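Session log. Operator J.P. requested a structure for one protein chain; no other inputs attached. Running the standard single-chain path with token output.
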Amino acid sequence: MDKTKIISSSIIAIALIFIGYKLSTTWEKTHVSYNNIGVTGLGTKNFDSDLIVWSASFSRNAATLSEANTLIKTDIDAVKSFLEKNGINENEIAFTSLKINRNYRQLYNNEGNPTGSVFEGYNLFQEVIIESKNLAAVEKSTTEIGDLIEKGIEFTSNEPDYYYTKLADLKLELLKNATQDALKRAQTIAENASSHIGKLKEAEMGVFQITGQNTNEDYSWGGSFNTKAKHKTASITVKLSFEL
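Structure written below.
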């Protein structure tokens, strides 16, 4: 055989071996998913809120600003006394800046068309915000505002909001539980498939959700955060991918 042909054949053979090797490694890199297992773990916990925020407002009308101010000051003292009597500390009560509005009465002609307005005095509007860890004291106050109304105070109450001050610790606990749940799921799947899991390839945390206990609230893609329920449920998911 010609020496040139032998060299050419050798080069072709080496090239074929190299191409085969590259194809083999490329297949392994692009088909790793066949050797992986992906699972989702869930961590949940029921808990009670430890902070309540309640806001309310009241106002007074008078012909002069001085008279209106005297009346609203009396109301502020009465509201503060009412709250403290129910067990709310002074440092948990905050009165916002006083809002002053002018009252006008619209005038109409015989045909019912507006012809102008007449100044009738002042309206002073006051808001109070209570932020306390004494949930029972604040809840008691929300049910007894009739005591203030009986004194002539136009007291308007908003629905309280409930919060939890240890969310960071709660998240860590849920992440731990969700990770352990995902690991157990992966081990169970692998064992039933006569295999075993290898090292962790990827981990992804899901959205943190807080809903009211025993409610049909929907989860949100951005995470739900219920503030109206005193008793809540927190949950989080963790996605893990393992080698097989």
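Operator note: The chain has two domains: 33-48+166-243, 52-163.
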